[in-house]
Amino acid sequence: MGSFSAIAHAATQTVKANPVLYVPVKRFIFPLIQAVRHLSVRFAAFALAQQPLTKFLLTPVRMDSIANLEVTGELASESITLRTIFPDEALFDRLPTRLGGEHHWNLREYRSAAGQTATISHGRFWLPGLAVTSRNRTYLNDALFKISVHAPQNAIWGMPFTRAMSLPGVSGLIAGNRPETYFHWMLEVAPKFLLLEADGGWGRYDRLIVPPLTKTFQHEVLDRFGVPKSLLDERVTGQLVEAEELVVPVLPAPHNRVPAWLPREMAARLRKEGSSPPSALIYISRRDSPARQVENEDEVIACLEPYGFQIVTLSGMSVAAQAALFGSARVVAGPHGAGFANLLFCNPGTAVLEFFSPLYVNFCYWTLARGAGLSYFYILGEGPKIPDSIEPSFGSVPIRVPLPALRRALDRLVGKR
C-alpha cells in the first residue's frame, strides 16, 4: 500500500480530471473547508489575545490591511506612513479580442492599482511565512500580497514564545510568491525594488531583506537596476525580526492583474530601444516545460512556419537575450506561460496571440499588454469545458489549439500568405 500522501494525491487528481466530481467540490466543499479554516484562525487569534497570554506572546492579535487602515484613518495609530509612488489609473475598459468565439466569462474590467510603500515603525516580519505586523501586533494581510496561503497561520501560531531579532536603522523588505521563477520574479518581486528606490533612493536604506538569490536572471535584473550589492541581506531561516524602521513595497495584484505602471517602469530600466522597426514573428514553445505544453504543437508549427515564424524555447536564455528577442518582435504567439513576462520588452503596437486551455484561463498577460501598449488577442483551446463561474485550478493541463481559428488569427495578424 502506498503512503497516505500518495493516495491523497491520486484521489485529488481523479477528482480534478472529472468535471462531474470537481464542480461540486469546487463550488461547495472547498468553500466549506476554507470557512472552517478561517474560523479556526480567528478563534486562535482571540484565544491568544486574552490575558495573561499577551504579556508573553509575540503574536499578532488582529488582522487588517493597509488599505483598510488608510480608509479608516488608523495609519497613524499603527505608526504606518503610506506613500504613493505610481498612482492608480482608469479602468481598462477595452477588452481584448477572442479569435474564434465569445469572450471568456472571467474577462472583466478592472482598475489599475497604485504602487505604494508603507513605512512601519518597529514593524515585524516572520520568516519564512513572511507575515508582516505593525507595532500594535496587527497582521497586515496586504503588505505582502500572495506570499503564502499560510501567512495568517504562521503569524498566529508560529510566533508564540519567539524572541524577535532587532535590526537598527531602515530595512527594506523584498519578498514575493516563488521568487525563483521567472514570471513571479519579473512581475511580482523585481518591481518592488523600483518602489523602494523611488522612496528615498538607495542611500536611505541600511539593508534590503531579500529572498535567496539563486538564479542568474535575478542578479542580472538587479545589476540593471543598479541595486548596491552591499545592501542585499538574504534570509532563509525561520525567524521573527523587528526592524526599527521597516519599508514594505505594496504591490497589490487583484485577480492576477498587472498594474499599468509596472510594464512602463520595468521597460524603462530593462529595454533597449531598437534602431529599426520590429519585424520578427515569434512563437514561444513550452516543449521545455512539463506544464501547459501544446498537445498538437507539430500541427501548430506547420501552420506557423509558412508565415515566417521563428520557433523559440526560452530556457537558459539570459534576460538581455530575451529582451533583444522580444524587442525585435512584430507578433508574439504561444501558450500561456512564463515566457510572456517578456512582453515587458516588446515595442508598443506589437501583436500578442495567447493560447489557453478551457480548463485554465488567466488574463494577467492581457493586463501586461495593455500597460505596455500592445495589441492582445487570445484563442481558447479545444476540450472539455467547466461551467461558467467555476474557476478550475488546472494550471498544468496541456492545450490543444484549434487549427482553423489559428489560421484565421494568423491571416488577421500577419496577413494572408
Describe this structure in words.
The protein is of the alpha/beta class and 417 residues long. It is built from 11 helices and 18 strands. Strands 2, 6, 7, 8, 10, 11, 12 and 13 form an 8-stranded mixed beta sheet that branches. Helix 2 (19-48) runs parallel beside helix 4 (151-157). It is globular and about 65 Å long. It starts with a helix and ends with a helix. The model is unreliable at 53-60, 146-152 and 156-161 (pLDDT under 50).
Please describe the structure with a list of short key phrases separated by commas or semicolons.
417 residues; alpha/beta; eight-stranded mixed beta sheet; 11 helices; 18 strands; 21% strand
Major beta-sheet overview: 8 strands, mixed
Order of helices and strands: HHEHEEEEEEEEHEHEHEEHEHEHEEHEH
Number of strands: 18
Shape: globular
Which strand-content bin applies to the residues? 15-25%
- Averaged pLDDT: 81
Helix fraction?
A: 25-40%
Structural class comes to alpha/beta
Report, as a whole number of angstroms, the end-to-end distance.
58 Å
- Count of alpha and pi helical runs: 11
Flag low-confidence runs.
53-60, 146-152, 156-161
